[in-house]
Write a structure and sequence with these properties.
Elements: H1 8-29, H2 31-38, H3 42-46, H4 50-73, H5 81-106, H6 111-135
């Protein structure tokens, strides 16, 4: 199998879905709590290079989405909708959450920030799994 043999429409749409989840999660749902947990004000956030921040975040979303699509494509059998969604969730729960948890322990960041970010990654990968399961 060629590493580029994936459904590229699903890759882009899933990356967009994860990106939208982030906008909602870090906006109206957890935005204020997240800002407090990282110690930033709205003014400080607005001073950031938004093109680089959002562009970089979307590029990372594309990499994550492609990796998920490639993982699904490497199986010799077609995976069910449920298996794809649960696999995506499992990637977040088994790889992403422990990785950020370890980083947060050593950098002595608070539990609140961990739960905000861990919740986001679980939703992000679940959203991507839903798209890949639907379009893949």
């Amino acid at each position: 199998m060629n590493i580029f043999d994936v459904n590229w429409i699903a890759v882009v749409v899933a990356a967009l879905a994860g990106f939208v989840v982030g906008g909602i999660w870090y906006g109206p749902i957890m935005g204020k709590k997240w800002m407090g947990a990282v110690g930033l004000t709205e003014e400080q956030i607005k001073e950031g290079n938004m093109g680089m921040i959002y562009g970089g975040a979307f590029a990372f979303s594309l990499v994550a989405s492609w990796t998920l699509a490639h993982t699904f494509a490497t199986y010799a059998v077609d995976l069910s909708f449920t298996v794809k969604v649960l696999t995506a969730f499992g990637v977040a729960l088994g790889f992403i959450v422990p990785a950020i948890g370890t980083n947060y322990l050593f950098s002595q960041k608070g539990k609140s920030l961990f739960f905000i970010d861990a919740g986001y990654w679980l939703l992000f990968y679940t959203a991507m799994g839903l798209v890949h399961a639907s379009l893949g």
